[in-house]
Amino acid sequence: MSRHGVAETVAGAAVLAVAFGFLAYAILHSGRSVTAGYPLTASFDHIDGLNVGSDVRIAGVKVGSVTNAVIDPKTFQAVVTLNVRDGIELPKDTAAEITSESLLGGKYINLSPGGDETGLKPGQAITITQSSVSLEQLLGKFIFSVTTLNNAKAGADGVKDGAQAPAGK
């Protein structure tokens, strides 16, 4: 019996070692590694779908990540702290926009550097921002505008509440 128990213990340890190796490989090669950089902040009206750990990109290339998101109790805006990789010197008039990866995908912050000669220093705020666009709000506005247009057209044709206009007199 003891011989059978030792073989099972060695096999279990080997399985755990291989699993740990796969886990370490996945973490190191996931593209979500923590990079050294400097913090910046940006305020948005709403950040629907943006999470801590989301990418910060310039021209589609990841240059940092979102490290914190809190609400400002005075302005009721979402204040996002992002970390930008060292070596990326952003101008003071850089714009930050929350963008979707795809129709169903997550959100990320897209930075559009401006042309100002002075740069943002660690801890400073990006002042030009565009909040997340909500698909639900866009669909609601579209449905409302189509309904309003149909009602206005029906009123112009003399149709009220689904009744037919009298034929030819």
Description:
- The structure is a single chain.
- This protein is of the alpha/beta class and 169 residues long.
- It is built from two helices and eight strands; from the N terminus they run H-E-E-E-E-E-E-E-E-H.
- The chain has an eight-stranded mixed β-sheet with strand order 7-1-4-3-2-6-5-8, with no helix packed on it.
- The longest helix has 27 residues.
- The radius of gyration is 27 Å and the shape is flat.
Strand content: 25-35%
- Straight-line N-to-C gap: 104 Å
Number of contiguous helices:
2
What about the largest sheet?
A: 8 strands, mixed
Mean pLDDT: 84
Regions with little confidence, pLDDT below 50 for 5+ residues: none
* Tally of strands: 8
The backbone outline, from C-alpha atoms, is flat
Cα Rg: 27 Å
Strand order of the largest sheet: 7-1-4-3-2-6-5-8
